[in-house]
Specification:
globular, binds NADPH dihydro-nicotinamide-adenine-dinucleotide phosphate, Rossmann fold, 7 strands, alpha/beta
């Protein structure tokens, strides 16, 4: 399926997977709104792809809603939402700075839910209309949404929550032709690790692997695959790891 005639919103599009996904959807014909906090980066990206830059902190419910409403108002409809903004602050639970937990829960869980809530009426409407008569909400989880291990307790909790939310919502709206898909990347080279505390980053880098990890474009390509399937075919869940990641 081409995405000609469709409108997409990508959150967390100022870097990494979100930026690459915005480019991939635009290449396939969608008009794309890109949302995040770093407006300079969004403006550059929107200039490249002929898209719409929206400055938004999606942890704030009014800003999450405004990002959705601005997209629909400026671009005329909303067919595809890539709910991608996220933060990963790894570390032990004991003696953790609880502020980091708040940041992860506020963005990875609540921000994602706010965007979904605001977008659903538009997606349901789009699914009744040409050109596709189907709509897509892709929630970006992680391999961390399937696994449990030391050092990732809160991040993994947020990504497990994304999985539960997505499956419950899928059951609720799938008969209305809104496809809720879960994208679960393994290790991807992005800015995600830049926000770790130095001691956590050092511990991770010494435990690091020497195999090639994924690029943002690999995940963007997989997301583009999900949203270009024919109307009768829903990709509910897609786990994509670097081949050598155990
Ligand atoms: P990046 O750090 O490159 O991207 C994160 C994006 O989220 C940025 O565009 C950032 O923009 C945005 N963001 C952060 N806070 C907010 C906020 N409050 N409101 C709106 N946007 C915000 O990392 P990735 O591209 O790797 O991460 C994208 C998603 O992929 C995340 O959900 C992550 O958990 C997931 N993921 C990543 C993996 C990896 O190995 N990289 C593996 C598995 C999953 P800005 O700061 O401008 O607001």
């Amino acid at each position: 399926m081409t995405l000609e005639g469709t409108v997409a919103l990508v959150t967390g599009a100022s870097s990494g997977i979100g930026e690459a996904t915005a480019r991939a959807l635009a290449e396939r014909g969608a008009r794309v709104a890109v949302a995040a906090r770093r407006k300079d980066r969004l403006d550059a990206l929107a200039g490249d792809i002929g898209g719409l830059a929206i400055e938004a902190d999606v942890t704030q419910r009014d800003q999450a809603t405004a990002a959705v409403e601005t997209t629909a108002a400026e671009l005329g409809r909303l067919d595809i939402v890539i709910n991608n903004a996220g933060v990963m602050l790894l570390g032990p639970i004991v003696d953790a700075p609880v502020e980091e937990w708040d940041r992860m829960i506020d963005l990875n869980v609540k921000g994602l839910m706010y965007v979904a809530h605001a977008a659903l009426p538009h997606l349901i409407r789009a699914a009744e209309q040409e050109p596709r008569r189907v709509a897509d909400l892709i929630n970006v989880s992680s391999v961390a949404g399937r696994r449990v291990g030391v050092g990732g307790g809160i991040y993994q909790s947020t990504k497990h929550a994304v999985g539960v939310f997505s499956e419950a919502l899928r059951q609720e709206v799938t008969e209305r032709h809104v496809r809720v898909g879960l994208m679960e990347p393994g290790a991807v080279a992005t800015e995600l690790t830049h926000h770790l505390r130095p001691e956590v980053r050092d511990a991770l880098s010494t435990a690091g692997s020497d195999y090639p990890i994924l690029q943002s474009e690999d995940i963007a390509d997989a997301i583009a695959y999900m949203v270009t399937r024919p109307r009768h075919m829903g990709i509910n869940e897609l786990l994509v790891r670097p081949t050598e990641q155990v």
